[in-house]
TrEMBL record, chain A:
Protein name: Uncharacterized protein
Gene3D superfamilies the UniProt entry points to: Tetratricopeptide repeat domain
Keyword rRNA-binding carried by entry: no
Biological process per Gene Ontology, one example term: protein folding
InterPro entries per the UniProt record, alphabetical: TPR-like_helical_dom_sf, TPR_2, TPR_rpt
UniProt-listed PROSITE patterns: TPR
One Gene Ontology molecular-function label: Hsp90 protein binding
A GO cellular-component term linked to this record: cytosol
Pfam family, one: TPR_2
PANTHER family, A to Z: TETRATRICOPEPTIDE REPEAT PROTEIN 4, TRANSLOCATION PROTEIN SEC72
Keywords per UniProt: Repeat, TPR repeat
From TrEMBL, chain B:
Phylogenetic lineage: Eukaryota, Fungi, Dikarya, Ascomycota, Pezizomycotina
Protein name: Translocation protein-like protein sec66
Spans through the membrane: 12-33
Composition-biased stretches (Basic and acidic residues): 191-201
Annotated stretches, region: Disordered: 191-240
Alphabetical UniProt keywords: Membrane, Transmembrane, Transmembrane helix
Record bears the keyword Signal: no
GO biological process: post-translational protein targeting to membrane, translocation
Origin: domain of life: Eukaryota
One GO cellular component term noted in the UniProt record for this chain: Sec62/Sec63 complex
InterPro entries membership: Sec66
Any one Pfam family match given in the protein's UniProt record, by short name: Sec66
Amino acid sequence: MESPDTFTLLPLHLNPQSKAISSTGTTNNALATELAALNTLHRSLLSVDTPTGTPPPPVPVNPKRSAQINKLRESGNNEFRKNNYANAIRMYSLAIEMALGRPAWEPSGLVREEVSGLLSNRAQANMALQNWAEGAVDAEASVEMKKVGNAKGWWRRGKCLLEMGRYEEADAWVKQALEFEATEQDLVQLKEEIEKKKDR
Amino acid sequence: MWPFDAVDWLTLSIPFAYLFILVGSLAVFSSLYRKNKAAKAASLAPWFPPHLQRNIYLSLLHMEPEPGHPKVPDSVLKAALLRRATEDIHRIVQIRNAKQALQVLLQRGSVGDDLWQRFQRAEKEIEEELRDVVNEANAFAPNWGQTIFQSASEMAQNTHLRERLAEIQSTTQSEKEWWEKRKETIKSDFMKELDEEKKSPMEVSSKPSGKTGSDDDAVIVESGGPAATAGKGKKKKGKH
């Protein structure tokens, strides 16, 4: 970094209509990526409805989007109960998209929580359709978002791997899961099941 | 005057000259040494690469409003400042993570003093950078300085989170293909087995008729067989 009093003047150009910033000089990759990110952020910043035009502090969260996500999740759950698994997957996917579309300055912990639950539900719907591969990926993503207190997510990927006949992977996965959720009865059972299959 | 007449100025000048030369040479040496050291510290490679976001922000801020170039709107500057704050967050995290390890390494003598000096300079720079960002933020909106780093930290984490998620989700396609292939092999193995067992070529003949078709066939065959528990039984059977 330069000293606090100096900076490198970059050859930037402002598009008068779109207000997009671009570089007029020789563009390197880093600058181009950064400017693209800046322009995206600028667009999302324009939709902020605070009087000063600055992003509001992370909490409290704008309840509108949370309500929409909840609604989509509920309808997904309803479809699931009616055994319309394909529809349920669609609803969950929409809800996930909605949750990931939150403005970047909103709390990331909240996004993790929401997305993890939704992915876990989608994994369940995929499993009901015997889409073990998709279920496994969804459950893995769900666990990645939230490792502790997500026994269902752990269990679902283990189950999917087991169903696909990937016993070694399933075994390793469930062992890892038990480090987080040692008391979960379902996981212990799944482990026994996997070991039985593996020994054969 | 008495005392001055009695003094032999020439002889007296010798000790004074001696003192002067001694002190002078020490002073010259000390100043040269310090200058040298400062120059060395300054010439050490900086800890971080150039702060691109800061350069962009300041370039935008100093853009001259010309006829063809309207003044940069505040919203763009705010976005640029947010990007700058986010990059600062990354840097602070790096500094914090590196500090403890570096201290231990320095105590053990595993790393040189140069590295520690570079690190300390980076630490000082980042402190000033933070102060600068807070001041700039407060200039845009009252009290924004108090929350800009909260927002920036969430932004950094949100980006990281979405990247991880995209990474995992991008494996879906290959996993799916792998599983389709695997399913086919299991199925054909099972069909062969059945073929050998029952010696009935009629049922096998309809095997290569697409994915869903063969699925149905498998179920039909299975319901006639001894073990019938949905798709799972079928796969297990193929394994024998």
